[in-house]
Write a structure and sequence with these properties.
About 50% of the residues lie in helices and about 15% in strands. The chain is an alpha+beta fold. The chain is globular, with a radius of gyration of 21 Å. The structure holds flavin-adenine dinucleotide (FAD).
Length: about 375
């Protein structure tokens, strides 16, 4: 493991930072409040090749790894534009397609994901199953050569911006109770697929939806991969990229908040000539948050390095730890930033309270802190499972 990025990764970091700063948090909030999407930023990032950094060159991508995509996620978030759909589309969907899709599926979908002209979102969560994906109730039944899908999904991000949803369903022959998951590429305009937008207390241009699948009829090639056996490995393939990139987004958000707060406390004076940052009651909480964010970044780098080296099991442990650490650090950093800004912290203008909802959600989704602690307790500490 090295602590240095390659010269190309350094350039990528600088270039993405510059792009993010051109748009900035004001743009992100304005889009959120007007109910619009970050279409211009996404399109420009796609044109510049940042959305496809981890996609193989033969499908129009940059041929890099999750380290590169984590840089994109972190730097856009550090500029005040934490885009959750980076985690969903290029991290989860592109990885799953690339590793387990058929050649035809890769050719059809990856170039559009790489240049940003297409988004594929991901639907696993269900109202009754929650964190327990063994209870998935969305069922895929054979229908001649094709499939019929029925069920309900919740909190699915970005359905209104995507061409397809990668839906995780249970196949009918799993009456044993054992999950035999299968993934399906469902067009967002498929007959029988309806959605309703959830009202979320998160300032974000990206929306969450309830999805209803009512006998959605799909052709045979909507099944991801060559056979039903691709389902479980495909599902697991998405987990590490998801953990690592969402952690990177959290670390970037933490950096953004600490930067805003430090600028403010280094110049604001209310007691004589001293800045409020000279009081340790103000500077220490900020410094503490900065340490937590930096520790999380180290863990993200470790997880991404292990993942890109093909060491999936070790990357699983590191990726979960990175996601936990970054989720906590981001929430701490934003909360601390709001506090040291005083009243200004709660204004839209100073742009930190606008992130409170997002960082709070980052401790719940895409995997909650408790489920990560369960994972660490069982797989690292060898403890029994209680559930
Ligand atoms: C902003 C946002 C975006 C999202 N986007 C998507 C998306 O694009 N696609 C998608 O499929 N899903 C998405 N989700 C859903 C998300 O993955 C789930 O909310 C998350 O996995 C938790 O599931 P749940 O909400 O059903 O909580 P529950 O499973 O009901 O859990 C509730 C609480 O109980 C705790 N808990 C549950 N079981 C245990 C246990 N065994 N031990 C200890 N604690 C436990 C949990 O940690 C949590 O704190 C999104 C959620 C949010 C908030």
């Amino acid at each position: 493991m090295t602590f240095d990025l390659t010269p190309e990764q350094d350039q990528l970091r600088d270039a993405v930072r510059a792009l993010g700063r051109r748009y900035g948090h004001g743009y992100f909030v304005e889009k959120a409040k007007s109910g619009e999407h970050t279409t211009e930023l996404w399109a420009e990032a796609g044109r510049l090749g940042y959305l496809g950094v981890n996609i193989p060159t033969e499908y129009g991508g940059g041929g890099g790894g999750i380290t590169d995509l984590a840089i994109v996620c972190e730097e856009l978030a550090a500029a005040g534009c934490p885009l959750l759909l980076l985690v969903v589309s290029p991290a989860i969907a592109a990885t799953v397609l690339n590793r387990h899709g058929t050649e035809e599926q890769r050719k059809r979908h990856l170039p559009g994901l790489a240049d940003g002209s297409q988004k594929i979102v991901f639907a696993i969560t269900e109202p009754e199953a929650g964190s327990n994906f063994h209870r998935l109730g969305t069922v895929a039944r054979r229908d001649g050569n094709g499939w019929l899908l029925s069920g309900r999904k919740c909190y699915i991000s970005g359905v209104d911006e995507a061409g397809h949803v990668l839906v995780v369903a249970r196949t009918e022959d799993s009456s044993t109770g054992k999950l035999k998951p299968a993934l399906f590429l469902v067009p967002t305009d498929a007959a029988g697929l309806t959605r309703s937008k959830l009202d979320m207390e998160i300032v974000s241009p990206e929306n969450q939806f309830l999805l209803y699948l009512d006998d959605v009829r799909l052709p045979a090639d909507a099944l991801l991969g060559e056979s039903l056996d691709a389902g479980l490995p495909a599902l697991f393939a998405g987990l590490n990229p998801e953990r690592i990139t969402v952690a990177a987004m959290g670390a970037g958000t933490g950096r953004y908040a600490i930067e805003r707060a430090s600028e403010y406390t280094a110049t604001r004076t209310v007691w004589g000539g001293r800045t409020i940052g000279s009081h340790q009651g103000v500077s220490h909480p900020l410094a503490h948050a900065a340490v937590q964010v930096e520790l999380a970044r180290l863990m993200i780098q470790k997880a991404a390095t292990l993942y890109d080296a093909g060491r999936d099991l070790e990357a699983g442990v590191a990726g979960n730890m990175a996601k936990y650490a970054a989720g906590e650090a981001a929430a701490l950093a934003v909360d601390t930033a709001v506090q040291v800004l005083g009243g200004a912290g709660m204004t839209t203008e100073y742009g930190v309270a606008t992130l409170l909802g997002a960082v709070r959600a980052g401790r719940i989704a895409p995997v909650s802190r408790e489920m990560i602690l369960n994972f660490v307790a069982q797989h690292v500490l060898g403890q029994d499972k209680s559930y």
